Amino acid sequence: MKRPVVGIPFNYDENWIGGAYYIKNLISALNIVDPVRQPNVWIISHSEASFDFIKRETAYPRLNWIRPGMVGGIDGGLSRKVKLASWLTPWFVKKKLEFDLIYPYPIDENLKQTACWIPDLQDKRLPNFFSRDELIAREAQHRYYFNNFQHIVFSSNAALYDFEEFYPEAVVNKYIVHFATFESASDGSFDDDVLLRYDLPKRFFYCPNQFWVHKNHDVVIDAVNLLKGRGVEVLVAFSGKEHDHRAPDHADKLRKKIAGMGLSNNFRFLGFIPREDQMAIFRRAVSVIQPSLFEGWSTVIEDAKSVSQHVIASNVPANVEQVKDNVDFFDASTPSALASLLEKYAITEPRRESIDYRKSQQEFADSFMGVVHAVMRNTKKM
Q1: Which residue, of 26, 221, 228, 317, has the greatest Cβ tally within 10 A?
Q2: How far apart are CA 180 and CA 305, in angstroms?
Q3: pLDDT in tens, 274-321
Q4: What is the rounded CA–CA span in Å between residue 52 and residue 195?
């Protein structure tokens, strides 16, 4: 059976770290595919540093790097310009590089073996969080996808349902690929050191969402304020890149709001922290708070599931679809509902059932490989 060749356009961007983690997790998932079926993967990027990030984080054995301008009709004369695994060099020199799948973004509308990823349709559900130009750009992007390509991947049924509601005219092949996360296993022996370094007590809640307006940090602050008024003290740790291009002063406003309410001792702003530190904090928190007003599929929830951690999540459709165990839901617009859950778990431990997360990881790998082979079959028919 022919080994698939997959091209992945990717540039590392801390301002959308979820996107970087998505690609890292996608390629990590390929490590658990049967070795004889593993695709050859090419990172298509102007940045060698982006390739090095993926190589370092995934250790995927069939990984290579190529610049965008070299895609399509590549021959061995250009081999010195790309990083090649030693096993691949003879194959590369003898024939042109042809991709069986380009994912998750298009690089050329002539490459019909492209599958486009639409993480969510937040612009349709929460248009007030976007400028007019952004709304026009996202609308144009979605229409470009389904007018020029035949395959679209969604991270959740919630995202698929939104797409079908807003673009009923789109005639494309649609796929659901629930992503999972992949982090190095740890025995937790250094977790105490991590908590000490970030000045975290034994009991605290963790909200690791990026500082984007729709992530809804405000409801957490309002809930803690309600508790303080009742004489209940809790501490919440925030982490993540403190930037939202749509609202550059958002993080500063949150800090000022906290100070103005007299809650400075109830919150820690940890900043953008290393993943190993973040996972230690995931393990040691009382519960993880995911208060978002909208999601396509939450990396935060997947991280929590991976360590069998309890989650207090907003009841938006994707969150409800994503997590079934170790969870309490609340209305994202109701601080008192969140306050009640925080108060409950401030003094008692939430129930945590052990989750065999390997099943989620295997499902991710299998469903993505299903897309690979579906696109290959479709391309042969053209």
Answers
A1: 26
A2: 9
A3: 999 999 999 999 999 999 999 999 999 999 999 999 999 999 999 999
A4: 30
- CA-based nearest residue to 83, from 67, 95, 103: 67
Burial tier of 274 (Cβ tally within 10 Å: 0-12, 13-18, 19+): exposed
Segment 235-242 shows an average pLDDT of 94
Residues with Cβ within 8 Å of residue 183, at least 6 apart in sequence: 275, 276, 279, 303, 306
Contact between residue 218 and residue 251 where contact means Cβ atoms under 8 Å apart: no
Q: How many CA atoms lie within 13 A of 104 on its CB side?
A: 19
User: ∠ CA(1), CA(373), CA(11), 5° rounding?
Assistant: 110
Instruction: Give per-residue pLDDT as tens, 13-54.
Output: 877 788 899 999 999 999 999 999 999 999 999 989 999 999
Distance from the first to the final alpha carbon of the chain: 20
- pLDDT tier, 164 (very low <50, low <70, confident <90, very high otherwise): very high
Pairing of strands 40-44, 63-66: parallel
Nearest to 80, CA basis, from 97, 61, 66:
66
The identity of residue 186, as a single letter, is S
237 in Cβ contact with 205 (< 8 Å): yes
Asked if residues 92 and 66 have their Cβ atoms less than 8 Å apart, the reply is no
User: What would the two tokens of residue 373 be?
Assistant: 């082979």
Can you tell me the distance from the alpha carbon of 18 to that of 29, in angstroms, rounded to the nearest whole number?
Answer: 16
Q: Cα separation of 219 and 55, whole Å?
A: 38
- What tokens appear for 288 in the block? 């993880």
Alpha-carbon span 148 to 311, nearest angstrom: 40
DSSP E strand stretches across the chain: 5-9, 40-44, 63-66, 101-102, 115-118, 151-154, 173-176, 205-207, 236-238, 267-269, 287-290, 311-314, 327-330
